[in-house]
Design brief:
21 strands, mainly beta, four-stranded antiparallel sheet
């Protein structure tokens, strides 16, 4: 009887040993895990790109580090063939969450985006990508072959053919280069207008027609507005006379780009970054009857006008 019991015990022990050996044979454990996989919470999470969102019927998006445009409030999006980083290159980079103000045009008739190419601290190439068919096709044009990394930039078109780019760069302390580039063929080619020879920091600029343009200077502790005007398409520039009433001296100090108002030109002059007259919430409105050479005070207007 003892021999029978010993035999049964031996069989049980041998079976347990065999089971342990088989379990540790390479591949067995892996196969068991394949049959019952352990889910990793990180591996099981699939990253999906969020759909683009449009606030306006004609809008742009910088989501997913790409510039895209829509002309139907987000139903369809078209990528713009410009690297996002190029849109913010230069001395001033914006917040990179939205395009730099005035650096682009986005209308039903024209989409245009200024950008720079090159990483040199001395000079870059200023280019513009534009579409006249709501993004179905794009053209690329060179505005300036060599230019200091931009601080100020602005692009605008007054009609199908005439447009301008105003830029500044190469700032040293409170001095910099400013330039005006003009096109008369819808942006296919650009020419640089003559310089105003002013080296103060550029505040604003623009044209009211193909011959009449303005450059406003002085953004660091300005005490009076300095506006220069051309009436011959940028061939010559002269400083405009702005007649500021005594009570507004050193209050209205930075001229904004003039605009047409009836048969005259009008212009707003703001208080600068440190203005506190009436809480900084008003601007001075000036008018000109000689196409921008002289300006007289008209009235105070709300700063958000």
């Amino acid at each position: 009887m003892k021999h029978v019991i010993l035999g049964i015990a031996c069989v049980v022990i041998v079976g347990q040993i065999a089971g342990l050996i088989l379990y540790h044979i390479p591949g067995k454990q892996e196969k068991a895990l394949e049959s019952h996989p352990v889910l990793d919470s990180q591996d099981s999470t699939v990253t999906e790109e969020q759909p683009l969102f449009a606030e306006e019927v004609i809008d742009y998006s910088l989501q997913h580090d790409k510039l895209s445009v829509t002309f139907d409030k987000g139903e369809n999006w078209t990528p713009v063939p410009v690297e996002k980083e190029s849109l913010f290159g230069g001395e001033y980079n914006g917040n990179q969450q939205e395009l730099i103000e005035n650096s682009y045009i986005l209308t039903k008739e024209r989409a245009a985006f200024l950008y720079s190419v090159g990483n040199s601290s001395e000079s870059v190439q200023i280019k513009m990508a534009y579409s006249l068919d709501q993004g179905r096709s794009w053209e690329e044009t060179v505005v300036a072959e060599q230019y200091p990394p931009m601080r100020y930039r602005k692009v605008s078109f007054l009609n199908d053919q005439f447009g301008y780019v105003i830029s500044s760069g190469g700032r040293t302390m409170s001095q910099e280069v400013s330039s005006v580039f003009l096109t008369n063929d819808g942006g296919k080619s650009w020419r640089e207008a003559n310089s105003s020879n002013v080296t103060r920091l550029l505040a604003d600029g623009g044209f009211t027609d193909e011959q009449t343009g303005f450059l406003s200077f002085g953004i660091i502790n300005p005490e009076r507005p300095e506006l220069h005007v051309t009436q011959d398409g940028g061939d010559t520039w002269e400083e405009a006379e702005i007649r500021i009433p005594e009570q507004y001296e050193k209050i209205f100090v930075i001229a904004e780009t003039p605009f047409k108002e009836g048969n005259s030109l009008a212009m707003l002059v703001n208080q600068g970054p440190n203005g506190d007259y009436k809480g900084g919430k008003v601007k001075g409105k000036f008018v000109s009857d000689d196409n921008g050479k002289t300006w007289v005070f008209s009235t105070e207007v709300p700063a958000n006008e």
